[in-house]
């Protein structure tokens, strides 16, 4: 478990979890503290498939994982869970079920916003994917921006559509004051794809009306017949 920095409340052993995707705006578990900050040497990418929440096996959604990259910085949110082993186990159990597409849990140093010299917490848990399609069946790998944008624009599943995930992440990063240029560019391309799809569906093709002339026949009154006596 993680150990807190002396600038935090205490030195007790606690659980720290770093969120860089949907955990930024929707943690879904009980926590005691939330801190904006970053981890080093990783960057956010949309290379992981989701087939049961915002996608399907036929058209998987693209969601976030982290790619190792020396010198990179990934901003997000760290959550602290205190209260003993039972609370920690409950949080980990929930996260392992929710983050089932991620096949690795790593420990990293987390740096608080504005304090970049020493980590605020060490041993912080992060869920990531092995970057190997054979090792992790959910790993999609990188793709050209236009291809990713089309996939994200069209994918949807029981919990919503893929584009909502991307747009919510874009907003969440803006809300914490650390917009991600990659996310912004991808979201922009997805909006262009959606605009093109909307334009296509707005064109209504009316069936041709047959030019058939109808003959209207007016009924004549019955003739009066006079009988000779």
From TrEMBL:
One of its GO terms (cellular component) is cytoplasm. Its main location: cytoplasm. One of its GO terms (molecular function) is glutathione specific gamma-glutamylcyclotransferase activity. Its cofactor is Mn(2+). It comes from the Eukaryota. Keywords: Cytoplasm, Lyase. Pfam families: ChaC. One of its GO terms (biological process) is glutathione catabolic process. It is found in: Cytoplasm. Belongs to the gamma-glutamylcyclotransferase family. PANTHER family: CATION TRANSPORT PROTEIN CHAC-RELATED (PTHR12192), GAMMA-GLUTAMYLCYCLOTRANSFERASE 2-2 (PTHR12192:SF19). This is Cation transport regulator-like protein. It comes from Musa troglodytarum. The lineage of its organism: Eukaryota, Viridiplantae, Streptophyta, Embryophyta, Tracheophyta.
